[in-house]
Recover the amino acids of this structure.
């Protein structure tokens, strides 16, 4: 792999950039791999990368039915934070966030991680108490957050309306090292780094069946032929249920649409990510100048990647209420993705009833921020059979009632 | 933006009048059931990419619950019927099979 | 130079002058101008700077597809960035400024990026700014961000208002060109309810500009007749300035009406968002001309050939004195002919096709215009304005044959149907090789709830680019729509539109076709985002082969025009680079809206005070008048406390608590949920709903109950009163009323539908007032009415009668630990009773109290609060509420769940009281430390604070918390971590801090 740098760009400029090599190879599938990962989204690619980097396992194929990074990795609002309440969540998201800090150097691909700070507004007494609790939990989890005053909120985000009238801002949970990254670049950077290690990233290769032998995984059937493997990782976000069915087990998952939208680009006006959960909306500004906006998910099963407009309406209302000046800006584009919602809204990184078959899914609305940590932990789980990062996220928790419920901090009204 | 026909009050209701309630025709398991049965009842969902039976409440209308047979990949609605029904009625099943030959109730393969 | 012609201009009124300013310069236009036509009439071709290289930018188009002509429009509360000048109607006093430059439009420092363009190819930022690491955050990114964005940020609140309309129609026709008008006529005549919307202020689309005749008359005459006919139909609604913004599932569509953009401050809403449900949608949205890719095609003065025509015909504006036309089709010859007719010079028509022989070509030749076939433009000369073009052989590599001086270039690369609305909801496209464009595939239309196709494309949006075909297709679309709805289409002759016939076009994706690297770096695809042919080729070379990869890697089509001009051209370049067919490469996804729509319109009227419904109790106004400090609770507002002059919140709460405990307090408890459960099986039902037994409650008695969800977690609590044998009144938390009622109905309708039970949510039917404190009984007895003595109305009983002449139910229940009556009266009587209580209570020292005093008093008593002690993961067993969990019942909702391994784990955290050693107040949400760290390096914990207050009664801090095996560890001291890194010690104690034996509430 030729390294990227400003000097390489200058060198290429002299010959009109005709000398750049492919960012990742486009290999034909081999007959057999040690490990097959289904799904070349961020999580799948990161898993393959850390299998190679941390465990020296490079006889790996990542199979993708469409184009890499084409699912939720390329459709989300790119927020990165780890200010979670429950220990297992904070552990994996903080691992991810800390890996994001050095990911550009690690991958030699600029993913534009921007630790500009993430702020979650408290707009009811209940929410305020919830975030104060989270701040206490984070302090013991090694996650740097604090609960800040309305004045400090206003100072960090001058365009915010902190005085209501309906939901005055009572403070905020502030994570200064949270932020955003360029979502496509994360997938591309991992794919390029995988390819450089000899891992096969194979696009346009749809898995149509999972072959088993004696209760163990034997391989997969694909649109490009049968491929054998010792271990199989299913990392397919919105389509986990479909793959689990092929493997013969069921998941505590429902797939629903989640929408997002962007405004036309304007000059910089908001330097941090602001989430307003009472009114249901969040917003940040991309490096291009667009306001990137998201809200709540639809409540019914849907595989169309189209959501219902009333959610967009609610989200926009919430954000005009929070940032009155955006009223005269315009929505440039709205889109939807399919997200996996589990029984406790926390992800699953787990062994499955099928031996040597592992699954990583259920990230719901929050998967992008977890990509490096998820790949790190899932690679360890697949390589060693256990990982402290993934231990709490097993499928068995639903049977035992051992949930990881993050809705806690801002859920029930009194 | 779905429109679903409420079989109770007869209104073709706009999605904003309705509240979704998840997979229909689940059998409740209570005390005396095994851990596996109870887990499955609470959490395992068919979540099909295709024909799906789901509960809806006409929440901002007559308040009644009904069941919709709907495709999750095209959002086509094959029919709705009252929630007080143990399994999909035959006419709904026929309507689905007519549109999707080979489909069968609770055949997830 | 661009200028106003002496004659012509079908849309303008030369006598009505309109003054406006551009970058502070005072200019003049006329009524009917767009901002773009008015600027061009004033020779203002340079109107902005591109995003990446800050290249000078002029108008390319005349309509919604314009990528360059974006301005900061208006001032103060009516300021708006990125407003497209081509779709902005000019009004008197309009003020606008160009964007994305510093210090000025003519001299822009950012333009240094231009010469550096070679070092800034697509995706250069992925390859650079990597080392050294801290530089990204502190140097590179701040720099990139400062150069980001186009328009300025509004500084003030929006001065305008917005509204929503709802429409339910049989047929929605989007687009008021001749195809749309005819479709609406056909559908309207059949009796269908029709809504016809047109994005501009004018009907008829391109036909009047292009010299089309219909049934032998000029198109304008037919359009006027069609409109008259439509206006005469009661079943047809017409709207101009209303754009079809998006098509969604099940026939839902958005219309975006710009009601008052052209007359700001006229008191009407600025925009109106139409939420339309249509059984059928006809998209007669026209087509957009494509640019040609030649070097320097972005220099101001290079425009679409059709736009040049629009400016001349509609607004009598000539973009230049000498306009070279460059094309691969016959349609652009119309531009040359029109310019010639207007007395302007067309030095040459450069036609990339080897031969050209259609009637339009003949007409041009006959008019004496020089036509060069098989030729292309090697490069455009000029910087901020075109000064000439260099002619070359299209088949070659760009060797210059001749230089032709000119000040404008009119280009045409063919036409692409506007398929956006067709595609929003899943409609598929087919590649039409003859016209080199994607058009709707009628076999794969979007389908609705019934599985039937619901979108029909018509006219040029359907690939019928010639007027005659387009009109006939519009008629067919209208008829097909009504027929598919079971209506009979009325016959009648289809009008016949005629225009000059056109010879075949030839796709040209690069000009000249053998252009070398240097020229390709100057061929713009996306003018706003500065994406060039070389960038797309680079993406393909580097393996970004999917069209989505290419788009994202190069940012092609991601600008505010969403690639209306660039997508097909970019796609063609990509497919050529990959050696693949265009249809095989496919398009990116079309997403709403068609062009950007204001957030204000999306939000509608719901802002400020009307952002969400505000629920008010009958006493709301009294609270307001008496200085309530509000707290939002769901959509209610409840008084948090009633501060008096000079009092802090804390002081007020302390006073309210003390006064209630010592004298008399009054609480508005109307927000508490009140759900009536009635029927022969009501008791059986409540036994399933609550963890405790309710069926054995005696009429006249009250019982505190806990409700869990099927997962076993505590979801609500409250007092149940049995009214009679078949009737119970269930009180819920304030926030819980609606979802608990829904929860009840869910189980009743979907699981136990044979049980004879009826429920009704009566929350808002009753006002409820808690009269609390040692003097509570004195006050009620003073007001007179029913017997409220300890004998007639003991603790946890209720009775019905009159208080102060008002019919009332009085519940002897207490959430404070004091002698307490909760009085429920019809909502209409609430305020009257409240005021009577207030005035009669004066002698007993009555004061109202708010939610915070309520919280403090319940914590002093160790009563749990849903949402504080519970958080969705807590089961009643954790809270020492075993007494409220029936052992006798086989089943209740949540029982099975509470038997699971994790729920019966003795290590669970359980409710205790916490007393700090120094009397201080524990921080909210603090965790109790346990030794060591877990495998992920996180500090272990053994409990947490759930409620913590300063108790005015006990004059020290009190807290409730959940602690591992807590109740077994009474008296033990544990450490809580604070946020400043220190710890606070607290003793584990009984959760009841005040009046443990309940003597006060039982008197």
């Amino acid at each position: 792999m030729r390294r990227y740098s400003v000097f390489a760009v200058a060198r290429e400029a002299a010959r009109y950039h005709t000398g750049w090599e492919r960012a990742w190879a486009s290999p034909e599938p081999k007959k057999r791999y040690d490990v097959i990962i289904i799904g070349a989204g961020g999580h799948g690619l990161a898993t393959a990368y850390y299998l190679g980097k941390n465990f020296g396992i490079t006889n790996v194929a990542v199979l993708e039915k469409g184009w890499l990074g084409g699912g939720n990795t390329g459709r989300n609002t790119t927020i990165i934070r780890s200010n979670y309440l429950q220990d297992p969540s904070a552990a994996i998201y903080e691992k991810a966030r800390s890996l994001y800090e050095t990911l550009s150097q690690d991958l030699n691909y600029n993913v534009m991680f921007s630790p500009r700070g993430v702020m979650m507004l408290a707009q009811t007494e209940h929410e305020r108490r919830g975030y104060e609790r989270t701040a206490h939990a984070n302090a013991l989890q090694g996650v740097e957050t604090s609960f800040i005053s309305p004045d400090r909120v206003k100072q960090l985000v001058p365009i915010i309306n902190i005085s209501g009238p309906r939901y005055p801002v009572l403070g905020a949970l502030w994570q200064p090292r949270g932020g955003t990254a360029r979502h496509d670049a994360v997938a591309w950077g991992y794919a390029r780094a995988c390819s450089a290690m000899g891992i096969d990233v194979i696009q346009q290769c749809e898995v149509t069946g999972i072959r088993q032998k004696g209760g163990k995984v034997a391989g997969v059937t694909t649109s490009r032929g049968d491929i054998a493997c010792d271990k199989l990782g299913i990392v397919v976000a919105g389509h986990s249920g479909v793959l689990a069915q092929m493997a013969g087990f069921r998941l505590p998952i429902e797939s629903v649409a989640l929408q997002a939208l962007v405004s036309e680009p304007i000059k910089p006006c908001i330097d941090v990510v602001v989430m307003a959960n009472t009114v249901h909306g969040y917003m940040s500004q991309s490096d291009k100048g667009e306001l990137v906006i998201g809200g709540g998910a639809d409540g019914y099963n849907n595989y169309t990647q189209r959501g219902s407009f009333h959610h967009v309406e609610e989200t926009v209302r919430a954000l005009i209420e929070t940032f009155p000046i955006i009223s005269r800006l315009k929505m440039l584009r709205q889109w939807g993705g399919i997200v996996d919602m589990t029984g406790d809204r926390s992800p699953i990184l787990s062994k499955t009833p099928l031996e040597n078959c592992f699954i990583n899914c259920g990230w719901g609305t929050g998967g992008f921020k977890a990509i490096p940590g998820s790949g790190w932990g899932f690679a360890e789980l697949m390589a060693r059979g256990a990982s402290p990062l993934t231990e709490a996220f097993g499928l068995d928790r639903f049977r035992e009632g051992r949930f990881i419920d993050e809705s806690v901090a801002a859920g029930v009204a009194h | 933006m779905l429109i679903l026909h409420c079989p109770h009050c007869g209104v073709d209701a706009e999605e904003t009048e309705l509240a979704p309630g998840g997979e229909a025709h689940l059998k409740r398991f209570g005390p005396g059931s095994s851990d596996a049965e109870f887990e499955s009842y609470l959490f395992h969902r068919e979540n099909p990419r295709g024909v799906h039976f789901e509960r809806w409440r006409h929440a901002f209308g007559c308040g009644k619950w009904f069941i919709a047979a709907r495709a999750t990949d095209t959002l086509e609605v094959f029919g709705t019927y009252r929630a007080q029904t143990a399994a999909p009625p035959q006419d709904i099943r026929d309507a689905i099979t007519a549109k999707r030959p080979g489909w069968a109730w609770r055949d997830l393969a | 130079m661009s200028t106003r012609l002496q004659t012509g201009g079908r849309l303008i009124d030369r006598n009505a002058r309109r003054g406006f300013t551009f970058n502070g310069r005072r200019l003049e236009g006329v009524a009917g101008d767009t901002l773009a036509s008015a600027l061009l009439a004033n020779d203002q071709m340079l109107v902005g700077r591109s995003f990446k290289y800050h290249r000078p930018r002029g108008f390319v188009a005349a309509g919604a597809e314009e990528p360059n002509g974006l301005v900061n429009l208006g001032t103060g509360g009516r300021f708006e960035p990125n407003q497209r000048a081509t779709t902005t109607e000019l009004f008197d006093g309009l003020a606008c400024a160009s964007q994305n430059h510093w210090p000025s439009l003519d001299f822009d420092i950012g333009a240094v990026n231009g010469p550096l363009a070679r070092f800034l190819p697509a995706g250069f930022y992925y390859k650079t700014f990597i080392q050294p690491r801290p530089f990204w955050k502190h140097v590179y990114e701040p720099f990139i961000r400062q150069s980001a964005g186009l328009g300025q940020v509004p500084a003030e609140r929006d001065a305008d208002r917005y509204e929503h309309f709802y429409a339910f129609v049989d047929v929605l026709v989007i687009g008021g060109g001749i195809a749309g008008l005819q479709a609406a006529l056909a559908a309207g005549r059949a009796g269908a309810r029709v809504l016809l919307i047109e994005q501009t202020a004018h009907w008829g689309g391109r036909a009047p500009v292009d010299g089309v005749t219909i049934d032998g008359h000029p198109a304008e005459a037919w359009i006027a007749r069609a409109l008259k006919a439509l206006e005469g139909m009661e079943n047809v609604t017409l709207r101009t300035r209303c754009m079809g913004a998006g098509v969604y599932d099940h026939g839902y569509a958005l219309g975006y009406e710009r009601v008052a953009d052209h007359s700001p401050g006229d008191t009407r809403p600025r925009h109106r968002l139409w939420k339309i449900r249509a059984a059928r949608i006809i998209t007669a949205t026209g087509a957009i001309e494509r640019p040609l890719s030649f070097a320097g095609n972005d220099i101001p003065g290079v425009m679409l050939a059709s736009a040049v025509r629009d400016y001349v015909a509609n607004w009598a504006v000539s973009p230049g004195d000498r306009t070279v036309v460059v094309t691969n089709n016959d349609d652009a010859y119309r531009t040359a002919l029109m310019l010639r007719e207007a007395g302007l010079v067309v030095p040459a028509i450069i036609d990339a096709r080897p031969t050209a022989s259609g009637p339009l070509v003949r007409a041009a030749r006959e008019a004496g215009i020089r036509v060069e076939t098989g030729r292309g433009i090697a490069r455009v000369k000029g910087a901020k304005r075109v000064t000439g073009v260099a002619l070359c052989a299209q088949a070659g590599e760009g060797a210059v044959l001749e230089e032709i001086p000119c000040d404008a270039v009119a280009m045409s690369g063919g036409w692409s149907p506007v398929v956006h609305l067709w595609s929003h909801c899943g409609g598929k496209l087919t590649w039409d090789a003859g016209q080199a464009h994607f058009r709707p595939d009628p076999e794969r239309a979007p389908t609705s709830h019934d599985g039937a196709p619901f979108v029909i494309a018509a006219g040029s949006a359907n690939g019928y680019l010639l007027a005659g075909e387009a009109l006939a297709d519009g008629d067919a679309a209208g008829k097909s729509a009504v027929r598919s709805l079971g209506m009979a289409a009325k016959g009648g002759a289809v009008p016949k539109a005629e225009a000059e016939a056109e010879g075949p076009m030839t796709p040209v994706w690069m000009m000249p076709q053998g252009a070398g690297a240097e020229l390709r770096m100057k061929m713009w695809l996306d003018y706003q985002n500065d994406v060039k042919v070389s960038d797309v080729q680079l993406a393909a070379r580097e393996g970004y082969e999917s069209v989505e990869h290419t788009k994202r890697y190069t940012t092609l089509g991601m600008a505010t025009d969403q690639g209306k001009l660039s997508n097909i051209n970019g796609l063609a370049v990509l497919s050529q680079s990959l050696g693949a067919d265009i249809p095989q490469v496919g398009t990116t996804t079309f997403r709403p809206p068609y062009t950007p729509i204001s957030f204000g319109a999306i939000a509608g009227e719901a802002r400020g005070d009307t952002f969400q419904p505000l629920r008010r109790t009958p006493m709301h106004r009294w609270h307001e008048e008496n200085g309530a400090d509000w707290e939002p609770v769901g959509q209610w507002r409840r008084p948090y406390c009633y501060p008096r002059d000079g009092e802090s919140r804390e002081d007020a709460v302390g006073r309210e608590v003390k006064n209630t405990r010592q004298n008399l307090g009054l609480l508005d408890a109307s927000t508490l949920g009140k759900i009536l459960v009635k029927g022969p099986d009501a008791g059986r039902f409540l036994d399933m709903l609550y963890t405790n037994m309710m069926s054995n409650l005696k009429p006249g008695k009250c019982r505190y109950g806990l409700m869990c969800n099927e997962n076993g977690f505590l979801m609500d609590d409250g007092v149940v009163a049995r009214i009679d044998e078949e009737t119970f009144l269930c009180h819920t938390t304030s926030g819980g009323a609606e979802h608990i009622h829904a929860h009840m109905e869910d189980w009743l309708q979907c699981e136990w539908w044979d049980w004879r039970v009826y429920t009704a949510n009566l929350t808002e039917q009753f006002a409820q007032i808690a009269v609390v404190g040692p003097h509570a009984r004195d006050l009620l007895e003073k007001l007179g009415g029913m017997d409220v003595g300890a004998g007639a109305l003991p603790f946890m009983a209720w009775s019905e009668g009159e208080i102060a002449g008002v019919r009332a139910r009085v519940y002897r229940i207490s959430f404070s630990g004091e002698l307490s009556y909760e009085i429920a009266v019809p909502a209409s009587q609430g305020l009257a009773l409240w005021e009577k209580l207030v005035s009669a209570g004066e002698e007993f020292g009555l004061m109202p109290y708010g939610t915070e005093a309520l919280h403090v008093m319940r914590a002093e008593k160790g009563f749990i609060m849903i949402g504080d002690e519970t958080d969705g993961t807590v089961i009643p067993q954790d809270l020492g509420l075993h007494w409220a969990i029936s052992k006798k019942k086989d089943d209740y909702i949540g029982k099975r769940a509470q038997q699971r391994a994790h729920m019966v784990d003795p290590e669970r955290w359980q409710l205790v009281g916490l007393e700090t050693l120094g009397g201080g107040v524990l921080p909210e949400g603090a965790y109790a430390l346990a030794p060591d760290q877990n495998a992920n390096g996180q500090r272990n914990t053994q409990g947490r604070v759930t409620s913590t207050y300063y108790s005015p009664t006990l004059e020290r801090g009190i807290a409730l918390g959940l602690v591992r095996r807590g109740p077994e560890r009474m008296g033990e001291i544990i450490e809580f971590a604070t946020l400043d890194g220190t710890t606070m010690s607290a003793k584990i104690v009984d959760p009841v801090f005040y009046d443990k034996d309940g003597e006060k509430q039982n008197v």
